[in-house]
Amino acid sequence: MSSTDRYQRGWEKLREIDGEVGEQVVQSLHDIAPDFARYLIEFPFGDIYARPGLDLKSREIAVVAALTALGNAAPQLKVHIQGALNVGVSRDEIVETIMQMAVYAGFPAALNGLAAAKEVFARQP
Protein backbone atom coordinates (compact mmCIF):
# COMPACT_ATOMS: atom_id res chain seq x y z
CA MET A 1 0.00 0.00 0.00
CA SER A 2 1.38 3.38 -0.97
CA SER A 3 1.79 6.37 1.28
CA THR A 4 -0.66 8.17 -1.00
CA ASP A 5 -3.34 5.54 -0.27
CA ARG A 6 -2.75 5.82 3.48
CA TYR A 7 -2.92 9.60 3.29
CA GLN A 8 -6.14 9.62 1.25
CA ARG A 9 -7.82 7.06 3.51
CA GLY A 10 -6.63 8.97 6.58
CA TRP A 11 -7.83 12.31 5.26
CA GLU A 12 -11.29 10.81 4.63
CA LYS A 13 -11.45 9.37 8.18
CA LEU A 14 -10.26 12.65 9.68
CA ARG A 15 -13.03 14.53 7.87
CA GLU A 16 -15.61 11.92 8.87
CA ILE A 17 -14.70 12.12 12.55
CA ASP A 18 -13.41 15.60 13.23
CA GLY A 19 -14.63 17.62 10.26
CA GLU A 20 -13.37 21.16 9.91
CA VAL A 21 -11.74 21.20 13.37
CA GLY A 22 -9.51 18.25 12.44
CA GLU A 23 -8.58 19.87 9.16
CA GLN A 24 -7.61 23.05 11.05
CA VAL A 25 -5.33 21.05 13.36
CA VAL A 26 -3.53 19.52 10.38
CA GLN A 27 -3.30 22.87 8.55
CA SER A 28 -1.82 24.50 11.66
CA LEU A 29 1.14 22.11 11.43
CA HIS A 30 2.02 22.69 7.78
CA ASP A 31 4.24 25.72 8.37
CA ILE A 32 6.18 24.22 11.30
CA ALA A 33 6.12 20.43 10.80
CA PRO A 34 4.59 19.33 7.48
CA ASP A 35 5.92 15.80 7.88
CA PHE A 36 4.23 15.53 11.28
CA ALA A 37 0.95 16.72 9.71
CA ARG A 38 1.28 13.90 7.16
CA TYR A 39 2.10 11.35 9.89
CA LEU A 40 -0.96 12.50 11.85
CA ILE A 41 -3.16 11.70 8.88
CA GLU A 42 -1.48 8.50 7.71
CA PHE A 43 -0.93 6.58 10.95
CA PRO A 44 -3.80 7.30 13.36
CA PHE A 45 -6.48 7.96 10.75
CA GLY A 46 -5.21 6.08 7.68
CA ASP A 47 -4.01 2.98 9.50
CA ILE A 48 -5.66 2.70 12.93
CA TYR A 49 -9.07 4.37 12.58
CA ALA A 50 -9.59 2.60 9.24
CA ARG A 51 -9.21 -0.87 10.76
CA PRO A 52 -12.39 -2.99 10.80
CA GLY A 53 -12.20 -4.24 14.42
CA LEU A 54 -14.13 -1.36 16.07
CA ASP A 55 -16.70 1.10 14.81
CA LEU A 56 -15.92 4.82 14.98
CA LYS A 57 -18.19 5.34 17.96
CA SER A 58 -16.24 2.78 20.01
CA ARG A 59 -12.93 4.22 18.87
CA GLU A 60 -13.90 7.74 19.89
CA ILE A 61 -15.13 6.57 23.30
CA ALA A 62 -11.71 4.95 23.80
CA VAL A 63 -9.92 8.13 22.72
CA VAL A 64 -12.01 10.31 25.04
CA ALA A 65 -11.17 7.94 27.90
CA ALA A 66 -7.45 7.90 27.07
CA LEU A 67 -7.13 11.66 26.66
CA THR A 68 -9.07 12.23 29.87
CA ALA A 69 -6.77 9.81 31.71
CA LEU A 70 -3.67 11.55 30.35
CA GLY A 71 -4.85 14.74 31.99
CA ASN A 72 -2.54 16.94 29.92
CA ALA A 73 -4.21 16.97 26.51
CA ALA A 74 -7.18 19.33 26.86
CA PRO A 75 -7.05 20.71 23.29
CA GLN A 76 -6.97 17.19 21.82
CA LEU A 77 -9.67 16.02 24.24
CA LYS A 78 -11.98 18.80 23.06
CA VAL A 79 -11.40 17.86 19.42
CA HIS A 80 -12.19 14.22 20.18
CA ILE A 81 -15.24 15.03 22.30
CA GLN A 82 -16.56 16.87 19.25
CA GLY A 83 -15.49 13.93 17.08
CA ALA A 84 -17.35 11.55 19.37
CA LEU A 85 -20.50 13.63 19.01
CA ASN A 86 -19.98 13.67 15.22
CA VAL A 87 -19.96 9.85 15.03
CA GLY A 88 -22.99 9.31 17.26
CA VAL A 89 -21.72 9.19 20.84
CA SER A 90 -24.29 10.88 23.06
CA ARG A 91 -23.50 13.58 25.60
CA ASP A 92 -24.49 11.15 28.36
CA GLU A 93 -22.07 8.51 27.04
CA ILE A 94 -19.26 11.06 26.91
CA VAL A 95 -19.96 12.20 30.48
CA GLU A 96 -20.11 8.59 31.73
CA THR A 97 -16.84 7.77 29.95
CA ILE A 98 -15.11 10.75 31.56
CA MET A 99 -16.57 9.97 34.99
CA GLN A 100 -15.31 6.37 34.69
CA MET A 101 -11.79 7.76 34.38
CA ALA A 102 -11.99 9.14 37.94
CA VAL A 103 -11.53 5.54 39.11
CA TYR A 104 -8.39 4.95 37.05
CA ALA A 105 -6.87 8.39 36.50
CA GLY A 106 -8.12 10.33 39.51
CA PHE A 107 -10.66 13.01 40.21
CA PRO A 108 -8.55 15.89 38.86
CA ALA A 109 -8.30 14.22 35.44
CA ALA A 110 -12.04 13.53 35.40
CA LEU A 111 -12.85 17.08 36.54
CA ASN A 112 -10.68 18.50 33.76
CA GLY A 113 -12.35 16.15 31.27
CA LEU A 114 -15.80 17.24 32.39
CA ALA A 115 -14.79 20.89 32.03
CA ALA A 116 -13.63 20.17 28.46
CA ALA A 117 -16.92 18.40 27.71
CA LYS A 118 -18.92 21.29 29.14
CA GLU A 119 -17.05 23.70 26.87
CA VAL A 120 -17.65 21.54 23.78
CA PHE A 121 -21.31 20.98 24.64
CA ALA A 122 -21.84 24.73 25.07
CA ARG A 123 -20.79 25.26 21.43
CA GLN A 124 -23.42 22.80 20.20
CA PRO A 125 -26.70 24.04 18.76
Automatic annotation (TrEMBL):
InterPro entries: 4CMD/NDH-1_regulator (IPR052512), AhpD-like (IPR029032), CMD-like (IPR003779). Gene3D superfamilies: AhpD-like. Residues 34-119 form the Carboxymuconolactone decarboxylase-like domain. Pfam families: CMD (PF02627). GO terms for molecular function: peroxiredoxin activity. It comes from the Bacteria. This is Carboxymuconolactone decarboxylase family protein. It comes from Aeromonas simiae.
